[in-house]
Amino acid sequence: MIGSMARDEAREAGRELLREALKKEIRARIGDRIDAVAKIVAEDIVKDVDTNLEIEARIRERTGPGTDLEEQIAQAFAPKKTTPARRAAKKTRKKAKKKSRRTR
After folding, report:
1. 104/86 Cα distance (integer angstroms)
2. Which distant-in-sequence residues (6+ apart) come within 8 Å of 34 by Cβ?
3. pLDDT tens-place string over residues 46-86
4. Do the beta carbons of residue 27 and residue 34 sit within 8 Å?
């Protein structure tokens, strides 16, 4: 078992050494072009992030405080608040129900 583990580690070390040598060779030959491409891609990503942040800010401005979509959904499922008019209507229905029971 130890011999097998040692062989696996030796293979992995060989791969790492080869990878490092390849990176060094590639960097020496075309490193400046790789750096230029990396700069172009990084700039594009930064522009995307800036644009997304601007869009999110505009959405927040449009919706304003307290109008978050999740908050609106939670309010839609919240128990209804009883208003004085609702309480009065409920009382009237109860009285009518009692009265109809007495007259039967």
Report:
1. 27
2. 26, 27
3. 999 999 999 988 887 877 665 677 777 887 887 777 777 77
4. yes
